[in-house]
Amino acid sequence: MRRSKRELILDAAVTLIAADGLEAVSFEALAEAAGLSKSGIIYHFPSRHELMLGIHRHLAEAWEVELERIAGARAAELDQAQRLRAVVISMGRTAELPELLMVLDARNEPEYKEVWAGVDKRWMPEPDSSDAYLVQLIAYGLWAHDHVHHEPLQAADRKRLIAAALEQIPT
């Protein structure tokens, strides 16, 4: 199936972020990366804010699709343990740099933050459910580890830590 121009633009933006960070995303650079005109980019995203919001939505939707694939169902059809299992497996991998940068960027803009909060509300336990929330924090640590630690986790260690986190999920 052929991708829409909007998807092409968003994928190109993610590639730019992966290579050079958020600052690399300009209408000019994006037009070149997507093989479209600047006016073609502006047609879909009339402002930088709309473009960034689109990237946040694009990545958050991709993450939710991944969670649904792992869990085998939508969040509303699962219990907390099943949702948390999908979160641990998903976040057990190393964060892609664009995902990490966009999640960090969302902290500064309520509209961006709400995009990610929607996925969190559907899939993650509330902070008051301490055992489940502790497992979620472990998943966050696995996800961000290789970007904040001087040495990445070895595959065998990551696999062992994911298994240990899964064992801690309250039933």
UniProtKB/TrEMBL annotation:
HTH tetR-type domain location: 3-63
Residue spans binding DNA: 26-45
UniProt-listed Gene3D superfamilies: Tetracycline Repressor, domain 2
This protein's record includes keyword Repressor: no
Gene Ontology MF term list: DNA-binding transcription factor activity; transcription cis-regulatory region binding
Pfam families found in the cross-reference section: TetR_C_28, TetR_N
InterPro entries: Homeodomain-like_sf, HTH-type_TetR-like_transc_reg, HTH_TetR, Tet_transcr_reg_TetR-rel_C_sf, TetR_CgmR_C
Keyword annotations of the record: DNA-binding, Transcription, Transcription regulation
Protein name in UniProt: TetR/AcrR family transcriptional regulator
Species of provenance: Corynebacterium hylobatis
